[in-house]
Give the backbone structure.
Amino acid sequence: MSTSSPVAALEIGTGRITLAVAERQPSGRLKITGVKSLESSGVRKSRITGLNNVKKTIQAVVRDLQDAASVDISNAWLAVSGPGVETKPLKGAWRTDMRKITDDDVAAVEENATENNGLDGSSRMVLHNLSQDFVLDGRTGIANPVGMTGQQLERRALCVHYALAQFDDAREAAAASHVEIPNAAFSGCCAARAVLGERERQDGVLVIDLGAGSTSYIAFTCGYVAAAGSIAAGGDHVTADLATAFGITRKQAEGLKIAEGCAVLRSESAGRRISIPSTTPGFQARSVSARAVETVVNARMDEIFRMVQDRLEASGPTTSLLAAGCVLTGGGAAMPRVCELAASTLGLPARIGEPVNVDGLENDPFPAALAVPAGLALLAADAEEAAAGERGGFMSMFKRIFS
């Protein structure tokens, strides 16, 4: 028996469009009560390129999920990723005249940090203002300055913002199914909300969500977000590389990736040939080297991890601050030995991240692929409770989770 109205989470991905519904249980835990996912069309690099195709897929997903879960879906939060997502460091300052810091001082410096973000509101929308640390008279790394004495209080935060036009395209696509999209959240935040515990965030951890059209990442140190972002490369690029390398169709390449792809080169693959059936009458089947397939896959996956590493080195924490290692989510995390490659490339221990903060996915064959919609449902449920006055304001919800 649930204790709240259902919430819905929508992810319009390059590979698949996924819709999930969830309800809060008497225990307080959120439970995913229904998930529907269909192959997407009209999405490239996490951006809608064919609106009518996306409308049709969302209509099918909504219809099937409403029938299966016996629930009416009138609104859903949206998970976003790809090049439309950008981040910007924010900093606020507040002078206290050498006295003990109060809650009012904290509220004032946080407002100062976020009110003048310098974004063009006609083209960009703020997804999250993620609180980082406080600085008091030059002393950094302060989690809560209340009660401490000083005269210059500063607040550092990370603004995650998104292309407003892309958000409007998604709203238009969902509106065809009479589904309203009231808010959006960054897929990296969603995945982290689903798979991380407080201890990992305190120890320092990197979450990488491996999607088809893009890869999102978010890093935590000392419990707060130290870096976040999204790169326009993912599993779909592996498929394209295979198609180009062997002169085969995208459909053949996708099947080859799923059946034979591996993130590292395996010794047992040396000398083995892989048969690729013909999909065109009059053309013979052909075979390719298993080692060549793994070489292509390894090169692209290694590049993706190195792109994340470069982003971290440019603006984020060093690997020495990420003691809890790297957690991989998304459909790309299903690739054999991907954790081995991530660990080797990033210099961090790596594991697959299954949703642990939400119930209902225990029987799914690979729940890590649903980390984003699961985490998005959690964020949506928390925000609805906050809006009802149970836990404070919308932004305080994000501070509670990511600060």
